[in-house]
């Protein structure tokens, strides 16, 4: 099943299909710009010392500052939200984000957003796709499997999704394939991802080794290496680490694990406020010319 949405085209008719960028705000929040789209992920703009609510009376303290404030966001076309938790959609965002912004997320999160007067929620089941067109570009967002915790606690956690973002020309030629893991652990359903979506250009993987009451709820350093080996992206940007006191697996551990696995050349490490600028391979540029 696919849902199709038309976005308003920019006044600039010269859409750049050859280059794009990923700006790291912090936690799982990035601003992705490519093919005329500006996409926000898992918006979290709390400051150091602020607390998020994780449900069941549990809270977590933010330890870092976001690179920008929500008021500094550029015009955004849509948001991709892996699930509804305070460190992915916080109280500042609930107050100040555009209530009409399209938000691609889980069906559970759509219900939570609607209860807070957000009218643009687009809920997807696993493997379901939402399609967006803007000018000469097309974006297909597919919901992927995710599991936020082991079986003994997963029932008490919100549904979570990973996502594939396929950027295409208007005639359906793929330009860029981006994978966002979401807050998941490694589990069997993830093995289907490389079968359905080979040749991933760039992956944003949620790390942190989140632990609450001793139970791990997001990938640590070892599982982070495992997801890279499973989905085999060309390049990887780790996100969602070191920002909250429940994140127990620091980035330094992941760096060591990556080096031991011989995967260092795939990694791009961004500090808050840094940007990764990328180029589309020349073979795909040739397809889009004329």
Describe the structure in your own words.
There is one protein chain. Helix content is 17%, strand content 31%. The chain has 290 residues and is α/β, with parallel strands linked by helices. It has one domain: Metallo-beta-lactamase, Chain A (4-Layer Sandwich), CATH 3.60.15.10. The strands form four sheets. Strands 1-10-11-12-13-14-17 form a seven-stranded mixed beta sheet. Strands 9-8-7-4-3-2-18 form a seven-stranded mixed beta sheet, covered by helices on one side. Strands 5-6 form a two-stranded antiparallel sheet. β3 and β4 form a beta hairpin. α5 packs across α6 (251-260). The longest helix is centred in the last third of the chain and has 11 residues, at 221-231. The two termini are 31 Å apart. The relative contact order is 0.16. Residues 286-290 have low confidence and may be disordered.
Instruction: Please work out how many helical segments DSSP would assign.
Output: 7
Main beta-sheet annotation: 7 strands, mixed
Mean pLDDT: 92
Order of helices and strands: EEEEEEEHEHEEEHEEHEEEHEHEH
Q: For the terminal residues, how far apart are their CA atoms?
A: 31 Å
* CATH class division: Alpha Beta
What features would you highlight for this structure?
31% strand; seven-stranded mixed sheet; Metallo-beta-lactamase, Chain A; disordered C terminus; 290 residues; alpha/beta; 18 strands; single chain
């Amino acid at each position: 099943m696919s849902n199709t949405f038309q976005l308003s085209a920019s006044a600039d008719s010269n859409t750049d299909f050859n280059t794009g960028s990923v700006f790291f705000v912090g936690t799982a929040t990035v601003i992705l710009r490519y093919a005329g789209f500006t996409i926000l992920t898992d918006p979290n703009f709390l400051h150091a010392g602020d607390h998020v609510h994780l449900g069941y009376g549990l809270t977590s303290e933010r330890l870092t500052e976001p690179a920008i404030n929500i008021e500094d966001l550029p015009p955004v076309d849509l948001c991709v939200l892996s699930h509804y938790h305070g460190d992915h959609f916080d109280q500042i965002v609930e107050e100040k984000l555009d209530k009409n912004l399209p938000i691609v997320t889980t069906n559970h999160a759509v219900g939570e957003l609607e209860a807070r007067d957000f009218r643009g929620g687009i809920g997807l089941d696993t493997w379901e796709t939402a399609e967006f067109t803007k000018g000469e570009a097309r974006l297909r967002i597919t919901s992927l499997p995710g599991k936020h915790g082991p079986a003994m606690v997963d029932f008490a956690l919100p549904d979570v999704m990973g996502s594939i973002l396929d950027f295409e020309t208007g005639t359906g030629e793929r330009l860029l394939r981006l994978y966002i893991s979401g807050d998941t652990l490694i589990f069997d359903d993830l093995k289907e991802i490389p079968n359905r979506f080979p040749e991933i250009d760039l992956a944003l993987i949620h790390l942190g080794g989140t632990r609450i009451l001793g139970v791990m709820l997001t990938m640590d350093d070892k599982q982070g290496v495992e997801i890279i080996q499973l989905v085999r992206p060309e390049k990887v940007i780790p996100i969602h680490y070191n920002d909250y006191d429940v994140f127990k697996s620091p980035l330094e551990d992941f760096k060591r694990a990556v080096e031991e696995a011989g995967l260092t050349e795939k990694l791009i490490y961004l500090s808050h406020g840094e940007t990764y600028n990328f180029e589309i391979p020349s073979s795909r540029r040739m397809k889009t010319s004329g």
